[in-house]
Amino acid sequence: MTQRRYAVIGTGAVGGFYGARLAAAGHEVHFLARSDAEVLRREGLRVESVDGDITLPEVSVCTDPADLPAVDVVLVTVKTTANGSLGRLLGPLDAPGRIVVAMQNGLGVDDQAAAAAPAATVLGGLCFVCATRERPGFVRHLDFGAVSLGERTSDGTAAGITDAVGAVGADLEAAGIEVRERPDLLAARWQKLMWNMPYNGLSVVLDAGTDQLQADPSSRALVTRLMREVEAASVAIGHPVGDGFVDQMLEYTDRMTPYAPSMKLDHEAGRPMELAAIYDEPLRVAAAAGAPMHELTALADQLHFLDGDRGQSAAERTVP
Amino acid sequence: MTQRRYAVIGTGAVGGFYGARLAAAGHEVHFLARSDAEVLRREGLRVESVDGDITLPEVSVCTDPADLPAVDVVLVTVKTTANGSLGRLLGPLDAPGRIVVAMQNGLGVDDQAAAAAPAATVLGGLCFVCATRERPGFVRHLDFGAVSLGERTSDGTAAGITDAVGAVGADLEAAGIEVRERPDLLAARWQKLMWNMPYNGLSVVLDAGTDQLQADPSSRALVTRLMREVEAASVAIGHPVGDGFVDQMLEYTDRMTPYAPSMKLDHEAGRPMELAAIYDEPLRVAAAAGAPMHELTALADQLHFLDGDRGQSAAERTVP
After folding, report:
1. Which stretches of chain A sit within 8 Å of chain B by CB?
2. Which residue of A has its CA nearest to B317?
3. pLDDT of B312 higher than 70
4. Are A193 and A64 members of one domain?
5. Scanning every residue of chain A, which has its alpha carbon at the shortest distance from the alpha carbon of B316?
6. Partner-chain contact B217 A315, CB within 8 Å
7. Residue A1 lies in a domain
8. pLDDT, tens digit, for every residue of A169-209?
């Protein structure tokens, strides 16, 4: 059997880490890069990882999606703040039988990928990984690494464990990645939102790490209420995160290494935050389902204030 | 007619400004001071004001409330964070016929004054003044200065315009202060909360002035929703702020000189914030009346996180 060939759109922490793992496992992997392209061509890709370092002295790099060789699977790993460019990035790669994996946080991103590549099969990939791209061609992997995989359906209903999920999941597992195959992609996305919505935003607004947010009784009570809002919304839209999940998330975070969420790193580095996918779209969907998330709405407005001109303004957001 | 004699508890911006105005108008004024006492005795009190400077070369200063001469009116001008000491400060001054004016922000402070001075008549005084105590004995008055006055009742019902309100109001007006006599003290307090709850807290959490909060569409939408929560609570408790008051507050703030609320100055100076009176008590009262203020609850928890050990912890707050 021929090994599946991969294209990876984006050479940040996620694209670099999973792309390198797949390449190290013997897959043909082609990267679509922008500013990092020259360094990657010249110096290759290096991942220093708690699970073992990887050095790829030579990597295949394109800057134009039309130049990518034919592949079986496309991993979309750019930040969702770049999703306005998905049509340009993914459009040339659209083909029947091709699998596109939206390895992004938040809500609505699978539909955006499907709109950009309507002939392809679209999966959502939720990455539980603590990694940073320290400089072009160099990724540091600090902790975790699991991926939840589920297939998108046009109406959001649970797809079950599909062939495409099985195929990509098998490749990632063979590359040393823990994979969780998920029959209901939206339930998986809301589970991840239950962590991202409280901790990402509060870490920015309060300039605090997860350990501080967990330790202070006021912020812990706030985090818990924010999680309950997400839980109620997931029930209202028919993709419940499951009983006891709030307590699980709190305990999971208590055990975590103190950690600054990526949104905090983005904000500190002057980059726009992923507010549309992680806040605006979930808030819109929850309100439309009759389960408005009040306290998270306040947090989202605070984040938009701090994001300022880096992202979309609230006025732009209200344009349909 | 003999002029009424005043005691002023506290020598911060509020006590210094109003005390100096009353003294300049010919009233006998005695200050109860703590750390500022020595400087006040040696150098007197100076107010540099947009309405005209005042220099009092000699002021009457005590450090023990038992040493204060008999007075007709006691102005309580300490920060509400010091209200745990009201029994010690006010108790020795309690007497029938004496008027105590709680010139403090927030909710519950009139009842605290009444508990400390049960024989006295208690008024609430809401100060719309922009002033800072720049150093001991020196107050800078930047803008505004009006005082809303209303009499406390044991059950919170509107007292009407009482003799005590008329008497203190007349003295303040004669001293050049704009006075608003209020028949319903709680309605007046909820009106002030409608400004303080959004702007004080957001100015701290977002590190922003009122002009920035007004200009950004996200924060302006958030401020407006927070005001609506206060409006709904005031209706639920039977002391409505009045139709159209939200729009009035927004327009009023648009016209204001860009301004850092006192809570922001307190926090930046490492002092505890007035969270119990301005957030915890209104949130408790609103929830008990069936009008929980959700987004303001989130803001209050953020502020308690930032206040940390300076104020009460959330755990202490939950002890009945």
Report:
1. 202, 205-206, 208, 212-213, 216-219, 221-222, 225-226, 294-295, 297-302, 304-306, 308, 313-315
2. A218
3. no
4. no
5. A217
6. yes
7. no
8. 999 999 999 999 999 999 999 999 999 999 999 999 999 99
Write out chain A's pLDDT in tens, 320 residues.
579 999 999 999 999 999 999 999 999 999 999 999 999 999 999 999 999 999 999 999 999 999 999 999 999 999 999 999 999 999 999 999 999 999 999 999 999 999 999 999 999 999 999 899 999 999 999 989 999 999 999 999 999 999 999 999 999 999 999 999 999 999 999 999 999 999 999 999 999 999 999 999 999 999 999 999 999 999 999 999 999 999 999 999 999 888 788 899 999 999 999 999 999 999 999 999 999 999 999 999 999 999 997 765 333 443 22
CATH number, domain with residue B131? 3.40.50.720
At B320, the pLDDT band (50, 70, 90 cuts) reads very low
Q: In chain B, whose CA is at the least distance from the CA of A316?
A: B217
User: Within this chain, do residues A207 and A136 fall inside the same structural domain, yes or no?
Assistant: no
Whether residue B302 and residue A225 make contact (CB cut-off 8 A), yes or no, is no
The tokens for A312 are: 């979309």
Q: Are residues B251 and B156 in the same domain?
A: no
Structural domain includes residue B1: no
Supply φ then ψ for residue A49, to 5 degrees. -135, 145
First to last CA, chain A: 47
Together in a domain, B51 and B103 = yes
Same domain, B176 and B191: no
pLDDT tens for each residue of B241-293: 999 999 999 999 999 888 788 899 999 999 999 999 999 999 999 999 999 99
Chain A partners within 8 Å of B305 (Cβ): 206, 208, 212-213, 216, 218-219, 222
Nearest to A218 among B202, B205, B304 (CB): B304
Tell me the per-residue pLDDT of B43-77, one tens digit each, with 9 for 90 and over.
999 999 999 999 999 999 999 999 999 999 999 99
Q: Are both A239 and A143 inside the same structural domain?
A: no
Task: For residue A193, list its beta bridge partners.
Answer: none
Taking one residue from A and the other from B, the number of pairs with CB-CB distance under 8 angstroms is 87
Spatial separation of the C-alpha atoms in residues B174 and B165, rounded to whole Å: 14
CB within 8 A of B267, min separation 6: which ones?
A: B204, B273, B306, B307
Count of domains for chain A: 2
Q: Among A116, A150, A183, identify where a domain stops.
A: A183
Of B212, B216, B314, nearest to A217 by CB-CB distance is B314
φ, ψ at A205 (rounded to 5°)? -65, -40
Q: How high is the pLDDT of residue A259?
A: 74
Does residue A165 sit in the same domain as residue A32? yes
State whether B222 and A313 contact (CB < 8 Å): no
Catalytic residue among B140, B141, B192, B239: B192
DSSP A82: G
Complex confidence, ipTM: 0.91
Please report whether residue B274 resides in a domain. yes
Look-up of token digits 């239950």: A194
CB atoms within 10 A of CB B67: 11
Which residues of B are less than 8 Å from A206 in CB distance? 205, 302, 305-306
* The pLDDT value given to residue A139: 97
Minimum distance, in Å, between the CA of residue A195 and any CA atom of chain B: 17
Bridge partners (DSSP) of residue A150 are A124
Examine the domain organization and report whether A104 and A165 are in the same domain.
Answer: yes
CATH of the domain at B220: 1.10.1040.10
Residue A299 lies in a domain: yes
Among the candidates A153, A183, A213, a domain finishes at A183
Closest residue to B217, CB basis, from A208, A226, A313: A313
Q: Which domain holds residue B259?
A: 187-318
> In this structure, which long-range contacts are made by residues B232-235, counting pairs with CB atoms below 8 Å and at least 24 apart in sequence?
B232/B291, B232/B293, B233/B190, B233/B282, B233/B285, B233/B286, B233/B289, B233/B291, B233/B293, B234/B187, B234/B190, B234/B191, B234/B194, B235/B291
Given an 8 Å threshold on Cβ–Cβ distance, is B314 in contact with A205?
no
